[in-house]
Amino acid sequence: NNQLTELLDVIMKYLEVEDIEDLDIEKVFSILSEIEGLKNSLIGYYLSSKPHGGDIIHSNFISSATNAINSFASVGERLFIELKEFILDKLSSFSHEKAFDLYYSLFNGYDFNSNPLILFTTNYDLILEEAFSPKSSDIHQKWIERGVKDIYLGFKLKSILPVFEFEIDRIYQPNTVSILKLHGSINWRPHEDLIILGDKNPPNDPDVPFLIYPGYKGVADEEPYFSLHFALLDVLPKVKNLVAIGFAFRDSYINTIIRHALSMNKDLRLHAIVPYFPSDSYFPSLQEAFGERVVHHRLKVVLEDDKAFLKNDEEIVENLFDLIES
Predict the structure, then answer these.
(1) Phi and psi at residue 105, in whole multiples of 5°?
(2) Quick one: which of 252, 256, 290, 253 has its CA closest to 271?
């Protein structure tokens, strides 16, 4: 609606973002959840979004802006829920078949029998889970034939509930694909003192998030995020290549972990596969600090006729691992 659109426009100015494609949804959620305390700050950004003339310091324009921000705050919870529902709908709208085709092709040639595949993601959707754990037994059999025997999400079945109980040794087992969701998931739910896998419906209470987003608010010092970020810290000193696909490098905690790993592990190379970075990306700082060990591949992943490619207007790369080893 118009009020939601107007509020998002103010938030974009507050975050100094010009293109909505560069908007960090975690920051939007954080502002919406704290809008009452941010009213005075937002008023100035509301003023900058409206045309005016002359001295406005004591004008009705200020009163109008104040009233508008107060109105935003008064319906903040409703807008918070509306935005959640909108995001959930977008995150839930994908083709399970295309998800499988994309990742099955992307990891063609990977030796699952000798190595684990450890996937860290900041996405909340269920695309990875569906791609590696499809409901179709025929598709599932294709992964088994590749050598995949276990899909590990960090949860353990207790009684009838899948409860988060992380076992770091499991991610290093051959034949295992680990999907570690650093920023949470649309089907994670708080349940008493536990985190469980639930359905995909957003809660009615905006204080009970179906997405938990610690990256913008600071260090992820609570479970399940502590264990998941610790796993990233544990993995990076042991590997030679970190491949980041579509990651903007705007999460300060993850950036710190990656920088630490590059400093400690002299064999580690960082490959960023993304056409461009937003203006607030930390990636240029990593390039400056670590030189040729940090590579920007200006490519995007596309799926054509059930086959995944990395491409731009000038280049097509058919195999992800050829790109890494080049």
Answers:
(1) -75, -40
(2) 290
CB 184, CB 154: distance < 8 Å = no
Q: Is 166 helix (H, G, I), strand (E, B) or coil?
A: coil
Alpha carbons 278 and 296: distance in angstroms, whole number = 13
Token pair listed for 323? 């790109």
pTM of the model: 0.80
Average pLDDT over residues 271-284: 93
Q: Is the Cβ–Cβ distance between 127 and 133 less than 8 Å?
A: no
Cβ atoms of residues 63 and 88 within 8 Å: no
| Selection from 235, 246, 263, 252 nearest residue 297 by Cα | 246
The predicted-structure confidence for 59-89, as pLDDT tens digits, reads as follows 444 455 566 656 666 656 666 677 767 766 7
pLDDT-based confidence at residue 268 (cuts at 50, 70, 90): very high
DSSP code for 270: E
